[in-house]
Structure formats: structure tokens, C-alpha cells
Amino acid sequence: MQNFQKFFSARALWALIVTIGAVMSGALTQHVPQESRASHAGGAHHVSARTTAHVAHVIDGDTVQLSDGRLVRYIGIDTPETGKGYAQTQECYAREATARNRALVAGKDVLLERDVSDTDRYGRLLRYVYVGDTFVNAVLVRDGFARARRYPPDTAHADEFAALQERARTQGKGLWGQCARN
After folding, report:
1. Of 2, 74, 106, 159, which is most buried, counting CB atoms within 10 Å of its CB?
2. How far apart are CA 36 and CA 45, in angstroms?
């Protein structure tokens, strides 16, 4: 055990444990859950309502507009700003993140899964997004197009996203290998 501890730093060991736990729970399989992964039982976190919708327009790497005009902001991730809207300057890897999001969801029917909050302060729906068996939020972090961000109380997948980010960062994927300030 001492050799194992010497080989891995505490941070790397924690990321490995979280990743193994996520794989064992099925969280990294990108499978759309049949039932919520958590419930209210014993005060546990709750992932709630699921709906389907059609993506009409991709705004940026973590925001889309649905065919009914509503905006959806992806929960638990943050992509570089495009310089449109409230952001004044385009950040490194913004175009790439927007293009990847477009490739994943544009013109497609998506499953939207709510966590605790329904909307953010701008009135956008806050959702986890799935296309078929692909967990879009997770793919964007895993492939280095987004950073994991914990926005309480919507944290059902925060540990999964943190583990995916750590792997992308150490492998220099996407923005982690292309941008000076990460």
C-alpha cells in the first residue's frame, strides 16, 4: 500500500476512485438512465423531470434554443464564451466548443433532465442533455470542450464531471492543450 500511495498523488488517487465509482455505477457509460440515479430517500440528491424537445439553434458550447423558443443552459459545465451576449470578448476554444455542441445536438431531438433548479437568473432552463445514449454534458467535459463547474444545488453529476475534467486536463485534450489559461 505504501508503494501505491507513493506512486499516486492524493489528487490523482481521488480522481481514480471517483472515476472507478462512476464506471461501476454506470455513470460513464453515457447510457440514458431509466430511473433517476438519486432520490429524496435519506436526504439524498434528487434528479427529477425528464422531457424531450427539438434543438432549433445552438447558441454556444453550453446553451441551445429549442424549437419552442426556450433557451437551455447545460448543468454542471462551462464552455469558453463566444464574445456574444453578455461576454465582451471571445475566449480561447469558444468556436471549437460551439462547433462540437452543434455537431452533437443541432436539429436533433434531445432528452432534457432537470436537477433541482428549473431556471437560472436569466430565465434559461437548466438541464442535463442527452441525444440517444450520449450524455452531452459529459462528452463536452470528457473531450476538453468544457470545464466542470459545480453550481449548487444542481450537483447530481458534479463528481462525474470533475473526474472527466481531470482526465481531459492530464491528457491535454481540447482547451486543456490549446489554451494558455485554463
Report:
1. 74
2. 10
> Whole-angstrom distance between the N-terminal and C-terminal Cα of the chain?
33
Place of cell 419552442: 68
Q: What tens digit of pLDDT does each residue of 104-133 get?
A: 999 999 999 999 999 999 999 999 999 999
Catalytic: which of 100, 124, 127, 169? 124
Active site residue 73: yes
As a whole number of angstroms, the distance between CA 78 and CA 6 comes to 33
- Report the C-alpha gap between 159 and 39 in whole angstroms: 17
3-state DSSP assignment of residue 121: coil
b/e 145-182 (16+ beta carbons within 10 angstroms → b)? bbbbbebeebebbbbbbbbbbbbbbeeebbbbeeeeee
- 81 belongs to the catalytic site: yes
Beta bridge partners of 111: 52, 130
In tens, the pLDDT along 60-116 reads 999 999 999 999 999 999 999 987 765 567 789 999 999 999 999 999 999 999 999
- Domains of the chain plus CATH, in order, are 2-178 (2.40.50.90)
